[in-house]
Write a structure and sequence with these properties.
This protein is 16% helix and 43% strand. With 184 residues, the chain is α+β, with helices and mostly antiparallel strands.
Amino acid sequence: MKNRVIVIIVSLVLIVSALFYILKKNTKSHSPEAKANYSEKGLNIEINYCRPYKKGRTIFSEAAEKVLQPYGKYWRMGANEATTFENNKDIIINGLELKAGKYQIYAIPNKESWDILFNTEWDRWGATEASHKTDVLKTTVSTNNNADFEEQLLISFDNRDSLSTPYLNIHWDKTMVKIPFTCK
C-alpha cells in the first residue's frame, strides 16, 4: 500500500511539473523572451525579460480606467518571470550604488515619474510583488509620455558613443523612461 501511495504522489508531481513547463512555454509565445546587453570597459550588464504586446490596450494610466498597468502599482517590467538585471561590477544608477550581482528589476509607474527598484528575489514567476524587505536600491526617474509609439515592450541601452552618460531605456506604447548609470 505504501508503494502505491508513493507511486501516485511521484506521478502527480511529474504531471504537475510537465503542465507547468507547458504553460510556461505557451505563455512565452505571446510575450517572447528578449535580452538587452551593455558592455564597455569591462562592465557587462544583461537584462532578461519577456516582451508583451500592446494589442490595442491602454498600458499605463489611472487605476479607475480599464488599464493594463495602473499608476502607483507594482509592475514586473515584462511578462512571465521577473525581469532580471545582472551586472558584473559595482555601478552607480541615478546617483545610487548597486553592487555587482543578479537582481529583479521592477517599477512602480506614475504619470510624471517612475520608481525603479532592484530586488534580490530575482528567481520568480508571475506578477506577484516582491518583498520590499529585499529591495537593495530604489530610485525615481522622469517619464516621457510622448515618445514614439512602441507596440511591444522594449528594454534597451543608449549608445555610449553619442552620450556622456549611458542610459537604460524602458519603452512601451508612448511611454519611455531613461535611467542613467555609470561604472563605479
